[in-house]
Amino acid sequence: REAAQANRYNQEFALLSVDLDNYQNSSERSLQKLASILRRSVRRGDLVALYEEAQFMLLLSQCRKEDAVRCAGRILQQNKKEAASLTVSIGVVHYHGKVCHPKKILVQAGLALHRAKKEGGNRYVIAA
Predict the structure, then answer these.
(1) pLDDT tops 70 at residue 99
(2) Mean pLDDT confidence for 116-128
(3) How many Cβ atoms from other residues are within 10 Å of residue 106's Cβ?
(4) Which residues have C-beta within 8 Å of that of residue 25, sequence separation ≥ 6?
(5) pLDDT of residue 96
């Protein structure tokens, strides 16, 4: 729905894929802590959802690329401050007016997330 609206009204949005690094060593409490950090790192009206086992998706409506990057940085900073023993990796996709199927946007977010993990984790990577 967000992609359709962005296409129709020439708007932009961002999708952030956030995953706990080394989830096997984490607990349910770790996921709850990350969820709390994520909810406080986005604007009211943005969507934070658990997507897979230890992966969250953040949908930032009407969000410029630089604001999406700032949000990813804020998440890393808050996580370091509040949950120093846990690290997260983030894949960032910015969408603006190029007609694209929503599944492709999810794939791009996943690839960026995978790259962040491959580069050592505890960072964000912007999808090309």
Answers:
(1) no
(2) 96
(3) 16
(4) none
(5) 85
Q: Is 71 helix (H, G, I), strand (E, B) or coil?
A: helix
Q: Whole-model pTM above 0.70?
A: yes
SS3 labels along 8-53 = HHCCEEEEEEEEECCHHHCCHHHHHHHHHHHHHHCCCCCEEEEEEC
Write down the mean pLDDT value for the chain: 91
Cα–Cα distances (Å) from 42 to 4, 103, 119, in that order, read: 22, 23, 25
φ, ψ (nearest 5 deg) of residue 93: -120, 130
How far apart CA 91 and CA 72 sit, in angstroms, is 9
Measuring CA to CA, which residue among 107, 127, 122 is closest to residue 19? 122
**Cβ(95)–Cβ(126) below 8 Å:** no
- 3-class SS at 57? strand
Integer-rounded Cα radius of gyration of the chain = 14
| Residues ≥6 apart with Cβ < 8 Å to 61 | 2, 13, 45, 46, 47
CA distance 29 to 4: 36
